[in-house]
# Entry
Amino acid sequence: MKHFTLLLAISSLAFCSYGQITFKRNDIYLEAGGNGLFASVNYERQLTKQPGLGFRLGVGFYSENAFYLTIPVGINYLFKLKNNKSFIDAGLGATWTRIDGNLFGDSKNSNGDHFVNFVPSLGYRRHTTKDLMWRISVSPIANKYGLVPWLGLSIGKRF
# Structure
């Protein structure tokens, strides 16, 4: 009887652990709009083993009359919805922007044309069965020039 009970306990444990879904904590994605302002490539890491607090870092650009380099950083929190792969994504970010793309400055551009944008965001995120992610968010931009309503659209790979 002891062997049967032990076998039953081990089998139950094996079935329970087999059915658990592993949460992939890393994302790399392209974003149009959002924290990167225009176009950016970003890496995001969830700091917890389940959806929750995360950190992001990226690099982006924009060019019209001048070349703008952007470096978005931020934190976010994923609130799980009824479906295990759908989330409300709330975040707060800051994006450093340098005009003419020169990170370290030079004698030609001594006026230091750089500024920081503050970008709160609220959106919907979806993880697919093929380890893809997409997100749409409202991300207003606040900087020394004022407040601008903004949207963000992201698509990327989870690993």
About this structure: The first strand starts at residue 26 and ends at 33. The radius of gyration is 21 Å. The mean pLDDT is 85. Helices lie at 2-18.
